[in-house]
Design a protein that fits this description.
Blueprint (H helix, E strand, L loop, with lengths): L1 E10 L2 E11 L4 E5 L6 H9 L6 E6 L2 E2 L5 H7 L1 E4 L11 H11 L1 H7 L11 H13 L15 H15 L3 E5 L10 H12 L5 E5 L3 H7 L2 E6 L2 E6 L1 H6 L1 H8 L1 H5 L1
Parallel strand pairs: 3-8, 3-9, 6-7, 7-8
Antiparallel strand pairs: 1-2, 1-4, 4-5, 9-10
Helix pairs in contact: 3-5, 3-6, 5-6, 6-7
Length: 254
């Protein structure tokens, strides 16, 4: 279980996230919505450690993570995908995934491997990386340098890296941003597959309400950094405060 308690961040006199308390249970996908500037990505950054909190705490399975760095939170079980891909462009697709596998507890820690050891000597790591690439339909591109991939395939690869880290919590910040109409369904299919594992918690920041309707078990709404709605998708989408002030009647009716 992931939990934030009174999570707050201030930039000078501006409160970007204001005392947000929320619990996210395993086996659920929670969509975080709201207008531009509502604090959605900032809230993500506070949870994953990209920003230090001003007040409040972050807990995962009873362990407080608030003072930990972003990388330490990743090792603790928080997996984060960004609006912009966060990959090693000069390495191959397989090398990117193999590096992520090696960095997991099951890889680097349990096997005692040096992060920069010769990967070809460790067939178990390669085999696991190939399994993950197969699950995201990227086996054919395994030898291609990441820089040569189209944007949609780079987003797929980022999901593959998250899968390699085997996190307890998957955090997706607008996963279809910048993708074409044809590319986006591939990422959404991957998220649907991840939802089948009821031991995992998924958080999704998304502007597209059709995506939210289809994938979310729950919606929370942020506005001016405050939590203003929380509940089942139909209930939240139908609420007047969301329709009129935050999502817009036209988008909800679409």
């Amino acid at each position: 279980m992931l939990e934030t308690q009174n999570l707050t961040v201030r930039f000078g006199g501006h409160v970007a996230v204001n005392a947000v308390s929320c619990r996210f249970e395993p086996g659920t996908l929670t969509a975080i919505v709201g207008p531009n500037g509502a604090g959605k990505t900032t809230y993500f950054n506070l949870i994953s450690g990209q920003l230090p909190v001003t007040e409040g705490t972050v807990h995962l399975n009873g362990r407080e993570l608030t003072s930990l760095s972003a990388s330490a939170r990743t090792r603790a079980g928080l997996g984060r995908a960004f609006q912009l891909t966060n990959l090693f462009p000069n390495l191959s697709v397989l090398e990117n995934v193999r590096l992520a596998v090696q960095a997991t507890k099951e890889g680097a820690h349990r096997r005692g491997l040096n992060l920069w050891s010769i990967w070809s000597d460790h067939s178990a790591l390669t085999n696991r990386a190939l399994e993950i690439l197969q699950s995201v339909s990227m086996t054919a591109q395994q030898d291609a340098p990441v820089a040569s991939l189209p944007h949609g395939d780079q987003r797929k690869l980022e999901v593959a890296l998250l899968m390699a880290l085997e996190p307890a919590v998957y955090m997706f910040d607008e996963p279809t941003a910048g993708m074409s109409h044809d590319e986006a369904p591939v990422i959404l299919d991957l998220i649907r597959q991840l939802k089948k594992d009821k031991t995992k918690t998924i958080l999704l920041v998304e502007h597209k309400m059709d995506v939210v309707r289809e994938l979310a078990d729950r919606i929370i709404v942020l506005h001016n950094g405050q939590l203003v709605a929380d509940g089942e998708p139909n209930e939240v989408i139908a609420s007047p405060i969301v329709q009129e002030a935050y999502l817009g009647k036209a988008k909800v009716a679409a």
